[in-house]
Amino acid sequence: MQGDILIEMKGVQKWYGGYQALRDVDLTVRKGEKIVLCGPSGSGKSTLIRCINRLEAIQQGSIVVNGHRLDDSIKAIDVVRQDVGMVFQSFNLFPHMTVLQNCMLAPVRARRISKPEAEATARRYLERVRIGDQADKYPAQLSGGQQQRVAIARALCMQPKVMLFDEPTSALDPEMVKEVLDTMIGLANDGMTMICVTHEMGFARQVADRVIFMAEGQIIEQGAPDAFFRNPQHARTRQFLGEILAHH
Amino acid sequence: MAPHFGLPEFGFLLRGMQWTVLLTLVAFVGGCTAGLAIALLRTCGHKGVEWFSRIYIGIFQGTPLLLQLFVVYYGLALTGLKLDAFVAVAIGFTVNASAFLGEIWRGAIQAVPLGQTEAAMALGLHYTSRMRDIVLPQAIRISLPATIGYLVQLIKGTSLAAIVGFIELARAGQIVSNQTFQPLLVFGVVGAMYFILCWPLSWWGSRMEARLALASQR
């Protein structure tokens, strides 16, 4: 079920001034693969996925997405961003637009799709995240869980090849976490390639093909969820898992 | 025997008021257009360009408006460019307004959460769309009370145009007062005219501010 290489990061180094956020990161993601990235805060997991759609620039190494090498040219960045959808911890819906307008803007502006077609696509994805009846509301009128599902639909409307999730449930009230995770599980079951930064280890067990543990800007350990959770190799990983699984 | 303050004198003041309104409109529309450009340059991310607009704002905020009007009216005349008084003060007020509005909007643009820009970038939206569709609509809403406040300042500030001989409301009042020897009455009427222009705007501005404060609580 896993096919061609979709994302390839090689020797990626990133600094914020004197602070090194990513140290020599290599990562290959194949089409259809679901990856969960975990690690303590400040370990570089968010930075890593933000480099994939060039929200952060890297200083060394290379990133190739769907055959396109990311460099500083606007054209390369454009091509890559068209293929990569992203969901943020704080939703980042556009507050002055309705749910439907949120979902239609990028397809119309960036993909130059006609408005009726963009609306049809938007409604289809809003249905898919089970929020079709809220299309004409503004984000502030929705609950956090609903907002995050709109954000997922908005990203899907661009028909990306891969979806990045940056702690999508961390800002949610506990009772809303499940509805967002269910949406993500549905997406995974449909074969979407996904990289998820999350502490939801139940989600990782259920859908991940690979779990990656990061600390201090490095990939420390990775493996299939079964082996990863049952038999972590590194002391650092065991310590982290001990800490987060203790209160789950 | 000096004429008393009557209908002709009142008509003269009204015409002055018209010029005040016209000058304000030209300066505000021109200042908005140029100010938007300044605000965009100031936030474009290019160091050199940002410095240019920072210096522009610094110069026009850091020197007296009176001086700027002198430079446009008398200074440009020295170079052979003799401008009509209205054109000269319109240019002076426009440039000055662009610096102040540019700075107000710079702040408003930067007050729109970074996540908005990031989400737009992640969706593949270009700078033009990010600004037009996402950032500016939110920034304008944020800046509305300050912008209206500046407009009120501008209406009253246009009285400085009298210094280069342009007859707007304040200057008209001075002329009528000199003719009628009724300064209290004349300037009372002039003040009431300014008040009629400014007060509704101030009221609208503070209502806007209250509504925004309410919206940000949600």
Describe the structure.
The complex is a heterodimer of chains A (248) and B (218). The longest helix of chain A is centred in the C-terminal third of the chain and has 16 residues, at 174-189. Chain A has helices at 45-52, 74-83, 99-109, 115-128, 144-156, 174-189, 201-207, 225-230, 235-246, and strands spanning 5-16, 19-30, 34-38, 60-65, 68-69, 84-87, 162-166, 193-197, 210-215, 218-223. Chain A is built from 9 helices and 10 strands. Chain A is globular and about 55 Å long. In chain A, a hairpin with a 2-residue loop joins strand 1 (5-16) and strand 2 (19-30). In chain A, strands 6-7-8-3-9-10 form a 6-stranded mixed sheet, with helices on both faces. In chain A, strands 2-1-4-5 form a 4-stranded antiparallel sheet, covered by helices on one side. The mean pLDDT of chain A is 94. In chain A, helix 3 (99-109) crosses helix 4, helix 4 (115-128) packs across helix 5 and helix 5 (144-156) packs parallel to helix 6 (174-189). Chain B has 218 residues and is mostly helical. Chain B is 83% helix and 0% strand. Chain B is built from 8 helices and no strands. Chain B has helices spanning 7-42, 47-62, 65-78, 85-111, 114-122, 127-157, 169-180, 183-217. The radius of gyration of chain B is 21 Å and the shape is flat. The model of chain B has no long low-confidence stretch (mean pLDDT 92). At the A-B interface, helix 2, strand 6, helix 3 and helix 5 of A face helix 5 and helix 6 of B.
